[in-house]
Amino acid sequence: EQKAIATPIRTKEIMKKYGFTFKKSLGQNFIIDVNILRNIITKANITKEMDAIEIGPGIGALTEQLAIAANKVIAFEIDGRLLPILEDTLEPYNNINIVNQDILKADMMEVWDKYSLGERPINVVANLPYYITTPILMQLLMAKLPISSITVMIQKEVAERMAAKESTKEYGSLSIAIQYYTEASVEMIVPKTVFMPQPRVDSAVLHLKMREKPPVNVENEPFFFNFVQSSFQQRRKTLRNNLSRHFTDTLSKSEIEEGFEKIGIDGTRRGESLTIEEFASLSNYFYQQIK
Ligand code: SAM
């Protein structure tokens, strides 16, 4: 059996052979522990009947394990310096396609067509570049791509916020945005020592299972997400306070109070205590008043 890419020795060898230097600005922290990668793939429930999309293959550490576990792998890599390296390191595998594009600018429809995605369930698996974790995830979710799940290594604090339940200090508009589209869970905490170079922050593996439909009925999504964001604007302040600021130009204080009464939510509560269902009822009510 060929030695895995994800070891300190092979990573160093590959870097030396190509004179490759890490670009901090691209979030390049490569994984050097194959057990972590196999755990990630287990958490993602990858099988040979599925295709995988990877974001940021680096020198191919995770890509290789995905190629072993999945039917085929499509990997987006922004850094052109890595293309010849990937060609070399992933040479033993014939089920990998590297797309040299910025994931935030990629034309997903074109990629779907070109690699005949959609014939099998698709899972996204990645050790994400931490500087753009939230934009990448929100873009994948909002595009409503036909994918089954997303399993990603990200900064621990961000993973905890994304999976947080109401009435915890991690809960906020990000929790609601993510959980509107998915069932979110933090699967494991990962020490810095499995990366080269080591990042400054701790990491975690976040699993997002796509929902078939949102858990609540929302009449207008942009209005809802704005409303939720404003409810957390000043975390220490009451809902009444944050919302009177949000609706300054559109609703009077007594109209806002009427909303609280009609929906049965106490205006002295804080945003962090509201469930997604409560946010949806309140936001739908105010949307009707304003539209
Ligand atoms: N998958 C490899 C591993 O686990 O060892 C590398 C992970 S490293 C944390 C993040 C990777 O994402 C880097 O290879 C980086 O060049 C790439 N990357 C950064 N920004 C990107 C973008 N906008 N689109 C695609 N890839 C990007």
Walk me through this protein's architecture.
This protein is an alpha/beta fold and 291 residues long. The protein contains twelve helices and nine strands. The strands form two sheets. The protein has a seven-stranded mixed β-sheet. A two-stranded antiparallel sheet has the order 1-8. α2 packs across α3 (61-69) and α11 (253-263) packs across α12 (276-290). The termini are far apart. The structure holds S-adenosylmethionine. S-adenosylmethionine (SAM) is lined by residues 26-31, 55-58, 61-62, 76-79, 102-104, 127, 129, 132.
Number of helices: 12
Largest sheet: 7 strands, mixed
User: Which spans have pLDDT < 50 for at least 5 consecutive residues?
Assistant: none
What share of residues is helical?
Answer: 25-40%
Q: How do the strands line up in the largest sheet?
A: 4-3-2-5-6-9-7
Shape: elongated
Gyration radius over CA: 22 Å
Q: What is the quaternary state of this protein? A: single chain
Order of helices and strands: HEHEHEHEHEHEHHEEEHHHH
Structural class: alpha/beta
Distance between the termini: 64 Å
Average pLDDT taken over every residue:
97
Report strand %.
Answer: 15-25%
Which hetero compounds are present in the coordinates? S-adenosylmethionine
Number of DSSP-assigned strands: 9
Protein name: Ribosomal RNA small subunit methyltransferase A
Function: Specifically dimethylates two adjacent adenosines (A1518 and A1519) in the loop of a conserved hairpin near the 3'-end of 16S rRNA in the 30S particle. May play a critical role in biogenesis of 30S subunits.
GO molecular function, one term: 16S rRNA (adenine(1518)-N(6)/adenine(1519)-N(6))-dimethyltransferase activity
EC number: 2.1.1.182
